[in-house]
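Friendly challenge for the regulars: who can give me the C-alpha cells for this chain first? No prize, just bragging rights.
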Amino acid sequence: MTRLATGAELRVTGETSRGAVICVNGGQPQPVEGTWSASVEWLVRRLAPRFPELTFAEVRYRVKSWKHLDLCIEDADAAILEIGSPNTIMLGFSMGGAVAIATAGRPPVRGVLGLAPWIPDELDVTPIAGKELVVLHGALDTWLPGIPGVAPRLSRRGFERARAAGASGRYVVIRGAVHGLALRTPRGHLAPLPRAGRWEALVGDELGRLLGGSMVDR
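First reply, four minutes later:
Bragging rights claimed.
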C-alpha cells in the first residue's frame, strides 16, 4: 500500500515499466471515507495474471463522493505521478469515469476505459480530446432507491459529447449486465454479478488493444 501526496491510498499489483492501468472507483452523494471498489478489485484479480507486463494501480480516494469530485480528481492525478508510466490507461468505474476523463489530458494517459461511467452534462470533456474513450455499459443498469446506478443513455450522451470534443473510441452495451461486476459480502469475499465474465473479457480485449504497442507478445 502506498500513501499518495494527497493522502489517498494506492494499491499496486505488478510493477513494470511497460504500461499501467490506473483504476478509479465510483462514489455516492454523502461525503464518506474512500473504500476499495469490489468491482475493480475483482477485475484486477482476474486480469493481472493475464497481463503480467502491466501495472494495475487501484486508488482509494480520501473522500468518496461526487460532491467532492475535485478531491477525487486530485487523488487520481497523484496516482498518475506516483506510477510514472508513460503508457497509462485510466480505468474508471461509475463516478470514476468522470475522474478518468478529467485526468485524460495528462501526457502519460493514452486513453480512458469507462465501465458504466458517470459522465455528467456539466463535466468538461475536453481533456479527452485527441485520445481514445471506450465505454462498456450494462444494458440493465439503472438507478434504484438506495442503489446507485447509471442509465446507459446517460453515459452514451457523455460519450457523444466527448466524441464531439475530439475523442475517438467506441461504445459497447453488455446484454444482461447491471451496474458493476462484483459485490463484497459481509465476510469480505467478492461475489461476481451477472455477466461479470463478459465484462472481464471485454476489458481484457480493450487493454490489449489500447496498450498493445507497449507490451510484449503474449
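The first strand starts at residue 2 and ends at 3. Strands lie at 2-3, 9-13, 20-24, 55-60, 88-93, 109-115, 132-138, 168-174, 182-184, 190-192. Your move, everyone else.
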